[in-house]
Structures
1.
Amino acid sequence: MATRSHASSLQISRETRERFVAATEALIEPVAHAIGERLVALASQTGNARDMQENRDGFLAFQAHGADWVAHTRGAWRKALASSSSGGSSSNSLRLELIGDEVVETNILSSRLAQAIQDKASFELNDLRLRVQHLEGTHELDAKDVLKPEAFAKVLVDQWLASGLSRGLWIKIQDQMQTHMVDALVNAYKDANAYLISRNVMPEIDLKSFVRRTGSVSSGAAALGGSFAASHASGSASMGISAQQQGPRGGYALPAGSFAPAAIGVGMGRGGAAVTSGDVMGATGGSPLLVARQRAQGVLLNLKRFVTARIGGDISQHRPAAGGVVGGPAGVAGAPAFAAAIADAEVAYQAAASQYIVGDEATAVLQATVDLRRRSAELKKKAPTTADKATVEIVALMFQAILAEERIPFSARVWFARLQMPVLRVAIAEPEFFGTLQHPARMLIDRMGSCVMGFDAAAISGSALEGEIRRVVQVIEQYPETGQRVFKLVFDEFVAFLNKYLTQSDTAQKVMSVAQQVEQKETMAIQYTIELRKMLNDMPVREEIREFLFKVWAEVLAIAALRYGPQDEQTVMLKRSASDLVWAASAKPNRNDRTRVIQDLPKLLQRLRQGMTLLGIVGDTQEQHIKTIGATLSDAFMSKTEAIPQAKIEAMAKRLANLEDFVSDEGTMDVPLDAASIELLLGVDAASIEVVPDTGTKVGEDMLAWAHELQVGNWFMLDHNDRVSQVQFVWRSERKQLHLFASSDGRSFLIQVGRLASYLQAGLLVPAEEETLTVRATREALAKLDANPERLLN
C-alpha cells in the first residue's frame, strides 16, 4: 500500500467526520416527528388528573419549542463539526472543580443516551476510532470529537434545555429517542467505516499493534486516588472501563462486543463512592471475554499492591510461616495455636448457623455478619504475622460482601457463609488464592454463586440444588487438612451435578434428545455426502444423479441410520438404492442391462419415494425429483458411452453398507437446524422449543471461543425477537454445535453455535452478572480497605 501523506490523511479523516455529521443531522427531524407522535399519544391517555395535565403540558411545550430544538440542534451539531475539524484542544489533565446539581443532572441524561449508543455500536465505533487514530497519528480521540457518542448525545440534551424544554419532558421521551436514534447511529458508524475502507484505510485491523502500556500515573489521577493511588504507582497490568460503564451495583456493565476499555479502577463501592487505582493500561483490543478476565485479574493485582505497600511483602506468594518454615503442607495455618483458633471458630460458627435458617431473614443476616466479624477480630489478635492478619481481614470482608448479596437466596447464603473459615485456612496455607482467578476455592464459590443468583428464594429452598450446596460445604468442612484439593474435588462434583440437575425436567430431556439427534443426523448427512463424492469421483455419473445423491439421498441415509440404526434392514435397503440408482443411470449399451433396468425400475422408484417421504419430501417436490431421475434413466438407454463396470458398482454398494466406518466424529462443520427438521426427525411438536439457527453471519474466532467457554448453570439476559428473557444455560451438545437455554417461564431456546456467537457479539445475549461472586467480593473488600486502610492490621 502506498504511503499516504499526512495532509491527505487529515483530509480523509475530515471527510469522514463531515459524512458522519451529515448522516446524523438527518436523523434529528424524523426523531422530532416520532417524539411529537409519542407526546400526542400521552396527551390522549386518561387516568390520574395530574398526569393528564403534565402530559398535555408536555405536548403543548413541544408544539411550541420542538421546531426550535431541531434548528438549534442542527446548528450546534455543525458547530461541533467545525470544532473537531479545526483540531480542538484535548487536555487529558484532570481538573477538580465544583459542579452544580443541574450540570450533573444534564450529564446524566446525555450519558444514558450515549451509553445506549455505545452498547449497540461498540464494534463499529471501536473500529472507526482505530482507523481515525491511525490516520491522524493520535492515541485517542478528542473528548469532544463528533465521532464519540457522548458528543452527539450532549448536543441533543443541551439544545433541548436551551430551547425551553424541560428535563422531565426529556425523561418521558428518552425511550422514544433511543428507539429511533440508536440503530440509525449504528448504521452511520458502519457507513463511516465502509468509507474509510473504500479509501484503503486499515481494511483489516490488527489489534495487537494498538496495545500500549504506561508505567506512569498522572498527577491528577494520583491526587484523586489519594493514598491508594500513591501505593499503586509502580506500574500497570490491568484493564477496566470508563466511569460511564459502571454498573448500578458498583460492578461494571460490560457491553457485549466492547473493545475499548479505558482507565482501570477498582470500581464503585456499594455506596457509590469511586475508588480509583491510579494504574492506567490503555488497550484497544480483545474480546469481551478477554476484557472481563483482564479486568478481574486487575482487581487481584490492585489488592496485592495495596497489601504489599502496607506489610512489605506479597500476600499472593508463599511466605515463611511461624517457625521459619516456608509454605508448609496444605491446610496448615501458620502457628499451631492459630490453626487451632481457626478450627474452633469454624466449629462455633457451624453450631450457631443452624439457628439462622429459622426466623426473620434480615435479623439472621445481621446476626451472621456480626458473629463472623467478631470471630474474625478474635482471629486477627491470634495471627502470628502481619500477612496472616491481612489475610483474615480480607477474607472476612469478602464474606461480608457475599453474605450481604441479596441476589443469593438466604438459605443458600447461610451455607456460603460457612465457607469463610475453610477459605481462610486455604488462603493462609496457599496464598496464591489472592493471585489467581483459577484457584479451586474461587472457582467453586463463583460457580455456585452464578447458579443461585438467578433463582428466587422459593425455588431454592428445599431444592436439590440447595441440598448439593449443603453437601459440598459439609464435605469441605470434614477435610480441613486437604487444602485446595477438596475444593477441586467438590467443584468437579458440583459441575457434574449441574449437568444433571439443570436438565432433569421432561421438557429439557426432550429438547436435549431431539437436539442431540439433530446434530448427529446433520453431521452424518454432511459426512455421508463427502463419502458419496469420494465414491463417485472417478465414475461417469450424470450431474442430475450426483446432485440428487449429494443433496437428498445423503440426508435420507443419515435420518434412516439415526431412526432405525445404521444396519437396520430399511437403512441397508436405502443404502443399496444409491448404488442401484448409479448403475441404472449409467450407459446401457447392452440389451440385457436395459431389460434389467426396466424390470427393476418400479421397485427402485418406490424405494426412492420411500426415502424421500422419510425425509419429508412429498407432493410436487418429490414428483419433480422422480421426473428428473426418469428423464436421466431414459437418456442412459440412448447413451453410447462406456458403462460403469459392475465391479465398481459392487464396491460402491459394499462401501455404502459400511458407511459408518468412514464417518468421522469430529463434528466441526456447520449443522443446519430449524423447527421443521426437529419435528420431522422424531415426530414431536417443537412449539415449546424456540429454535435459533445459524444465519451465515461471519463472527470472529474470539466470539466462537467465548460461546464455547460459557459455563453450564450461568444466567444470561437474552434479547430474542424483541423480547428480553432471563435464561439459564443448561446444556451443550457433545459436538458443541447446539446450546440450550431455559427461561423461568418454561420456554427453551436451542441456539446454534454460530448464532450464539453472533448474539454475544451483538449484545443480544449478555451475562446477567457483570463479575463473578468472588471478584465482586474482592473489589468491595478493597473499596473498604482503601477508605479505611488502618483496619487491615488493627
2.
Amino acid sequence: MDTAMRAEETHFADLVQGRAQQFQVPLYQRTYSWTEKQLAKLWIDILEQAELVGTDSTVSTHFLGSVVLAPSPLNEATFPRWLVVDGQQRLTTLSLALAAIRDHISETQPDEAERIDEEYLINKRKKGGDHLRLLPTQADRPQYAAHVHGVQSEQVSGDRVAAAYRFFRRKLVEFVEADDATAPQDVLRVEQAITSRLTLVSVTAERGDNVHRIFESLNNTGLKLSQADLLRNYLFMRLPTRSEQVYETHWLPLQNSLSNDELEQLMWLQLVLDGDDRVRRQDLYTAQQHRFESQAASGAQAEAEIEAYIKELHRRSAHFRKVIRPDEETDPHVRGCLKRLQDWQAVVTYPALMLVLDRREHGEADAAETARALSYVESYLVRRTICRIPTNNLNRIFQAVPAQLPQGVGVAAGLHQLLSAENRSWPDDGELREKIRTAPFYQYGRPNQRRLVLQRLEESYDHPEPVDFASAQLTIEHVMPQSPGDEWMRMLDDDTTQGETAEDLHSRMQHTLGNLTLTGVNSELSNHPFQRKQGLLEGSHLEMNRRIAATERWGAKEILARADDLADRAIRMWPAPLSGVGRAERSRDWRLAHQVLAALPHGTWTSYGDLAAFIGSGAQAVGVHLANSEGVVNAYRVLNADGKIAEGFRWAGADGGDVRVRLSADGIHFTATGAADPAQRLTVDDLGLLLDSADGQAAESDSPTGPERQGEETRAARFLHQLAADDAPETVTAVRELLAHWEKLGGWIGYGAGEVTTSAFLMLGKAGAPGQGIWPLTLYPGSGRGGTAEVVFAHMANREPFTDRALRADLLGRLNEMDDVSIPEGKLELRPSFRLSVLDDEESRECLHATLVWFRDCWEKRDLT
C-alpha cells in the first residue's frame, strides 16, 4: 500500500465520543450483512467483558478488529467527517447494540438513555443527515436512522439492520431476567463493555492519500470483494460531488433489482456490448478501470463520464432483467423466445440477446423482428445440439457478436448472416435431417436441452389443448426400450439388412430422435412390448404419443419415418442458416479503433497503416472513416507513415484549428522536415500493448529462461554470435561488458529460447520463480538492422516498486542522458528501444551502468517502503 497511514489501539468510546463528528460508510461499500451467527458470537464476547467491568483489568480486553478511516472529501474544520473504508460492519453493529441499550432503559433511566444517545449515536445540534454520528450507506440508512431516532418504520423482510437491533433487544431482556441485580445497572455494564472493553485498531489515512488504493489493498489481503464491489467502489470514489444523487437515482434501483452476481454479469456484458470481445469476466474491474483512465478526463468531465456510464448500466439493466426473468417482457412472442433460451440455460448467448433488446429500444427493430432475431439464436443452439457440434467455442462466438454484427442491415438479418458464416458451424437442413435420422440424440447435450427439443416438437402439432409443460412432470421415454425383450428383438430381426444383427440395429436406432418421446408414465411403459405401450401412449395428451400409438408396429422403418416427420417440423420451426456467406471475420471494429485512439498517451502519434493493422482493416478505409466520423478522440494524431499530416486533412465536425498546433500542444515534436518525431510513433505492437495492459498483465514478448548450466551449447553463445553477425566488434564488446557488469551487481542473465533469434534478459530476483523477478532491459540481435535494447516499461508497471509511474519516469530520464537516446514520456507503459551501438560511446556506457545500479537499489529497497 503506497499510502502513509497511522495505526493506534482504541475503544469505541475513544473513537466516536467527543465533539460532533460523523463516520460515513461510502456508497460503494456493501450493505450491512451481519447475521445472527456473527451477532451471537459478539454477544458472548460482550457478556464476558461485562463481567470484568469494574475489576480494573486491562489484560483481558477483547480485540474486535480494525477500522480503517480516511478524511471525507466533504470534511469541515468544525465538523470532521470520516470515510469508513473498512470496519463498517463492526461500527454499525456496536451502534445498534447501544441503541438497543438506550431503548431498554429509556423508561427507567431516561437521563442515562439520553447520555448514550448524545455520546455515541447522534450529533445533538446537527440537522438532517449530519444528525447521525454513523451514516450508513443509503440502502441501510432508512432502517438505521429509524432505530437511532426511535421511530418505528416499516420493516422489510430480510432487513439485517432491523434484525440486529431486535437481536440485541431480545438478548438484553434475557440478560436482565437471568440476573438478580438491579436491571439498569446490569445493562449499563453491557454498555461499558461495548464502549470501553472491546479493543479496536484504528487505521487512519492522511488527507490526500489514495483511498481507492487502500480499498484495493484491503481486498488483496482478505476482504475478497467481487469484481462488482471493486468497480462500484472505483466509480463512486470518482464522483466526489455527484455521488449521492447518482447513487439515489440510478445505482440504488439497479442494485435493488439485481443480485451482486447478476450486477457483475451486467457490468461485464456492458463492456462486451461496447465492443470489447476479448475481456474475461474475472478481469472486469481492471478492464473498466483502464477504460476510464485512458480517457484522461478530470474534474467535472470525469464525473460526467462516470455518471453517463452508471446511467447506461441502469438503462441496460431493464434488458438484462428480461433476459434472466422473461416474465418481465410484455410482448408474448418475444417473451416466449426469451423463456425458451432461459430454459436452455443459454448464458453464453447473453451478449447477443442484450444487443437485440437494445436495438429494439432504440427503435431499430419492432417486436416481430426482435422475436425473429431471437429465433435465429435458438435455432443456432438447437441445430448444433441435434448435430452434436461441441459447445466449447460458443462463448467466443457470442461474445464477438456486438463487434462483428454486419452494419447497414436490420439486427435480425445481421444476426442471421453472422451466425451463418462457414466457420460458425450452423447446420443446414440436409445435415439436420441426416442427424435426426442417425445421431444418438439421447446421448448428447444436457437433459434439459433434450427435453426442450422434444417439447418444441410436440408444440409444433398445434394441439387445441396444449400441455402445460411447466407443471407436467414429463421425462424422456425410449419407445423401443433400451433393454428390449425377446419380442422386440424378433421384430428387429425382420428389419435387419445384410450383415447386420438385431443387436446391431438396436444399438444404432435406440437413442435416435425418432425413437424418443415425452411421457409422465415412464416407469409404467418400461420395457413392455409395443402392443402394451400402445394402449398407454394412446391415452396420452401429447399428440406425438397418439401418433406413435396409431402405428401397427415399432421397428426401424417406423422410427425412420417418424424421424423424417420430426425433421420436417424441425426445419420449419428452427430457421436454416444462409448459404454462401463465407467465413465470419472480425468486422472493421471502429469501436476498437476509437478505444485505442482515446488511450494514446501524451506525446505520441500513430499512422493510418498502424491503426489499420491493429483493427484488421486498410489504411485508406481508416482515413475515410476518421475523416467522416465526428467525436473520435485523438483522430488528428493519426498521420502518414512518414509523420506528415495527410494531404487534404479536414476536421470531422467542428473546426479544430491548425492541426500542427494541436499536435504540438499534445507534446508531439517535429523534425526540420516538418514530420512528427518518429521516436514518438506508436506501432501496431505498441497499440496492442495499450489495450493489453487493461488486463493487468505484463505484455511480454518473450520469457527468460533460468541461468544456463555449465557445459550447455549455450544460448548465450548463440546470442553473442547473432549479435556479432550484425553489429560492429566494439558494440559486441560493449554488450559483453554490460552483461558482466549486471552479474557483478547481483543480477543474472536469462536467455530467450527462440531458435531463430535469441534475446538476453537482465534479470533480478530468484531464477525460475514466475512473477517474482524483474528485468529493466531485453537485448536483441539486429537481424540486419543492428541490435537493440528494449526498455520493458510494460513489464515493470506490474512489478514493485516500478508500479509507481514517477519511478519509471525517473528511469526514462536517466536513460535519455545517453547520447542518441530520446525516449518520449508517452511510452512509459510500452516497450521502447534504443540501438545497442549507443554503448560504443564510453560516457553512454558509464551512464547505463550507473542507471542499472540505481535500478537494482530501487528494487532491493522495495520491501522497506
3.
Amino acid sequence: MTLSPTLRRGREADLPRVLALIQELAEYERAPEAVTNTLAMMRHDGFGPEPIFGFFVLENDADLVGLALFYTAYSTWKGRMLYLEDLVVTEAARRGGYGRQLFDAVVAEARRTGAQRLKWQVLNWNEPAIAFYQKLGATIEAEWLNGALGAEELSAYRFAGSKE
C-alpha cells in the first residue's frame, strides 16, 4: 500500500467501490440493511443527464480508501449550501489524516461554488466522528430533529383532499 493516497474527484468507474464504501459505513453505523441504493441509481443520479451529487475519493494502489459524497442544497435563510452526505474512510486507513483531506476537499468545493453553509449529520453515539468535526471548529447541533419519509411512506402518503 502506498503511503500517500491520491485525492481526486470521483468518476463513474469508481461507483462499484463507492457503493462498497457506503455499505461499509452502514455496517459501522449498525444499519447494513438500510442501504437500498444501487449502481444503476448512482450512475443515473451522479452521471446521468441531470447529476445531483458529486464526490471525492482517496485512491491508494488502485483501490479507494476514502469517500466524501456531497450535493448542493438550498437554505431559505442562508441561500446555497453544500450537504456532505457521507464521509467514509476504510477501517484499515483510519487515523491517517485521510478524513481531514476529504473534508478539506469538500470545504474547498463549498467555497468554489459560493455555498453559504456546509452541513452534515453525525450519529449521536459516534464519538470519534463528533470529536473529529469539533476539532475542525464545527458546531454540532442538538436542537434540530431530522424528519424523513422513506420509499414506503412516500408511496403510502395520502394528499390532502384525496379520496383514497
